[in-house]
Amino acid sequence: MIVLGSTSEVAQAFVEKALQEGEKFEKIYLFTSSKETTERFARHIDVKFLQQSEVIEIDLMKEIDYNKFDHVSSNVLFCAVGYLGDGTEEGLYDNRNTERIININYSKLIPVMNYFAQKFESRRSGTIIGLSSVAGDRGRQSNFIYGSAKAAFTAYLSGLRNYLFEKKVHVLTIKPGFMATKMTEGLPLNPKLTATPKQAADCIYKAFKKQKNVAYVLPVWSIIMMIIRNIPEFIFKKLKL
């Protein structure tokens, strides 16, 4: 398995869920911008599951040497890369914040995704799982920079799924709602609409095994976002969402 964004609590929970369910991986490649943190997780799965892994440093904000990834081969790619950034008015007009949100969530991530997608295509097998967000379903004033990047990522995964279908590669789009993670720590989240990493991992694993195309982590979010998507624009633009 290839894991992009392996410091993510959801990514780590999914890895553990897959191993608990008896999935066999010759090696798990843990791509990370925080080597020390990821090495602790690598030691954890080695001790608990006797799972061999390799930690590979990657920084999307720097030039990437793809030659370092030539040896990486797998049938599952799990992408949990994400950066929420500063969603306040100050953050909105901070170009460095805006660029970082767009780069990490989309523009710098897609070439990496394409690099591995091509490997999957050449083998004509495998599953690519991408964590997008309900924020990408419709732009809202509270987080529309982040939401626009996730909307682009959702569209990318949809097109990739369409393109790779005849190549026997499946692409699964996951849309979490509120998540109790480090990224959302301190935010006033409704507990009834918030999933834990373990809940997310259970949902994603089920969707993976059923070869679903799109899955919301909590089913209630599919209803919420259907309502939000269908509010007429002349009403929607007046709402504070």
From TrEMBL:
<dbReference type="GO" id="GO:0016491">
    <property type="term" value="F:oxidoreductase activity"/>
</dbReference>
<keyword id="KW-0560">Oxidoreductase</keyword>
<feature type="transmembrane region" description="Helical">
    <location>
        <begin position="214"/>
        <end position="231"/>
    </location>
</feature>
<comment type="similarity">
    <text>Belongs to the short-chain dehydrogenases/reductases (SDR) family.</text>
</comment>
<keyword id="KW-0812">Transmembrane</keyword>
<keyword id="KW-0521">NADP</keyword>
<dbReference type="Pfam" id="PF00106">
    <property type="entry name" value="adh_short"/>
</dbReference>
<keyword id="KW-0472">Membrane</keyword>
<protein>
    <submittedName>
        <fullName>SDR family NAD(P)-dependent oxidoreductase</fullName>
    </submittedName>
</protein>
<dbReference type="InterPro" id="IPR036291">
    <property type="entry name" value="NAD(P)-bd_dom_sf"/>
</dbReference>
<dbReference type="InterPro" id="IPR002347">
    <property type="entry name" value="SDR_fam"/>
</dbReference>
<keyword id="KW-1133">Transmembrane helix</keyword>
